[in-house]
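User: Some background: our group keeps a shared notebook of sequences we're curious about, and every so often someone picks one and asks for a predicted structure to add to the entry. Today it's my turn. The entry only has the sequence so far, pasted here. Could you supply the structure so I can complete it?
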Amino acid sequence: MSRHITKTPNSSPRLLASAIGVAISASSVAHMAQAAQETEQKGERNSISLGATSITGQEQDATSYQTEKASSQKYTAPLVDTPRSVTVVPAQVLKDTAATSLQDALRTVPGITFGAGEGGNPQGDRPFIRGFDAQGDTYLDGVRDTGGQSREIFDIESIEVSKGPNSSFGGRGSAGGSLNLVSKTPQARDFLNGGFTYGSDQTRRYALDVNRQFLDNAAFRLNLMSHEQNVAGRDAVNYDRWGVAPSLTFGLGTPTRVNLSYYHMESNDLPDSGIPYGYSNSSATAVHVHDKPTDGGDSSNFYGLKDRDFRKTRADISTFSIEHDLNDNMTLKNTLRHGSTGQDYVLTQPDDSQHNVNQFGTVWRRANSRVSTTTTTTNQTDLFGSFQALGFKHSYSTGLEFTGEETRVSGYTVSPNSNPSCTVAGGGKGGQCTSLSDPNPNDAWTGSVARNYMGTNTKATSRAAYVFDTIELDPQWLLNVGLRYDTFDTEANTNAVPSATVKARTKLKDDSQFFNWQAGLVWKPMENGSIYTSYATSASPAGGLVGEGVDSNAIPTGINTSDMKPEETVNYELGTKWDLFHDRLSLTAAVFRTEKKNARVLVNSNTYENAGESRVDGLELSASGKLTEQWQVFAGYSYLKSELVDPGKNGNRLGVVTAGSNKGNEMPNTPKHSFSLWTTYDITSKLTVGGGAFYVDDVYGDPANTVYVPSYTRYDAMASYKLTKNVDLQLNVQNLTDKTYYDKAYGAHFANQAAGRTALLTTSFHF
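Assistant: Of course. Here's the predicted structure to add to the notebook entry:
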């Protein structure tokens, strides 16, 4: 049975937007006078919201770009005394830059790029940190957040970026680092924040953040979001999503705290199909040599089909945690989480490198599809605190973790979806072909899209024990150590249409055990600074992405499980950190070498060994905080010199050796230079202006270094004005010069183009 796909309007965001609008209007009138009076009496600065995010009062200045300590108890020292590179994107930076997604937010952190997805490698966030794929290394409040997603930040307080191998923190993966998203939680006070954003390209965003304290020590918090937009400089593309995140805490300010939270988000998009790579010559057998995307002379060209393409996603995450102070120096915490994420899409992969671009000036609209669901259940128990022993002070954290994960992946049968020679554009061959220079997204799709239930079901179980300790040897010397032991068992069951060479069902499995550790020595020549050296490891077992991505160490057919050793990565780092200007400004610098020495590579046809090696030598600089009381800065620079030292032999998807060698090439998605600067200045107590510059060097999409996206510099600007004590206006202009650039490179076929000039005007209130 086949069905014709036509994207239908998603009414849920519009209903939610209306609900938020009603809540904003009613609540504003009811609370304005009372809240303004209470604010003046208390002399406090309440939470500030700008659609995307809100800032809540903490012990540290909530409006500062500086962060003194990470949220996770596994960081057993303040950041200035932590012997590794950690960047925290705080709430105020998220607000000032008008970030609404994880990718938006991480633009302010150099050394991170994003890769593109298709069918096998899912659409969604695919970050690369220091050149290593971190697709499976995102955490939510310290718990691994699996599943292919495009993450929103309407319920996020800050984002913590840990750079360098850190499997001792989170377990498998993390070869280049990891991301931890910190959720908004109930506070022991009342506030009401909201915002609505209107912008170019029909951007409409509504957000509400309300917190209410009840009884003496309980509080409820609710975050709502609705977002609709087209994309500047891109034809046809649009995004439509909504989310809700309630949370409830009992025991605030008492020795026992209980928290319950739920997060739900849905999206319904017409996704961007990207721009195909061009060719250095125009022969029918052309191969990529050093080629970048080509749009036929019009950067707004969209090569997909409005009548066929769609992407729908959802995320549901429920969390229960209980925390008890056993005494003044010891706390026990248990976290139980169940999460389910899914996505469903058919999208165009422009031309699939079939040479229509260079031969005929046309593009084949190859259809990629995916239907996937990932469920995860995690229980994590932590004991942390401090004690004195043998004359040394210890700040420690230890714990146990148990996780079960399952991913089901299938797709659609799209017909026709052959490899046509697109000699004719204009919707030729049933809509499969279009013009490179003048595509028509409204071409009629005369084919069919039918659900295909053949696919793969992957299950994984992991168990871990870990311990961290910062030992104060004397007032000037600190020793930071961490150790983690993991077991990781995975099994993949694949259903396929049986044939002479393919079995109806294939079962593959692997069981791994591995230790990871870290050690760092910190010297504090002054109280406000440190110089450190550190060593850290990571391990990536076979099948570590649990079916939600393309593993560098995947479970293939035709290989003995004894050969599937975890890939190991090590990091050597020397750095220094200083808090200057009365601890208002944090400066960091680090040099490092990251090496993966036993990557699984092809040595002969269908023969793999853990013998590959890749290496990144780098330098990172950062500054965050206040230069003066009026002037803030959030900036960084990254230099990454990457090399495929021993990539093994080239091979195709079937594991057959092909010609050529990638030895000595740069690693994909690894810019040599990248830089970001965001700064604001309070001209008066009411008026703030700011701006940013973001530079990323050329990025190769593939290990052969035959396709790449060019370097770019993007400029942003903002201005905000306090109309009253409770109402603000903020104007953001992103990509001021309307630069055409690409922010995601795929290993073959295409790259994703970023948005053009975008203007956003936000009205926000806070009571």
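Suggested note for the entry: Helices lie at 11-42, 91-96, 102-106, 167-170, 356-360, 428-431. Residues 11-442+454-766 form a domain with the Maltoporin; Chain A fold (CATH 2.40.170.20).
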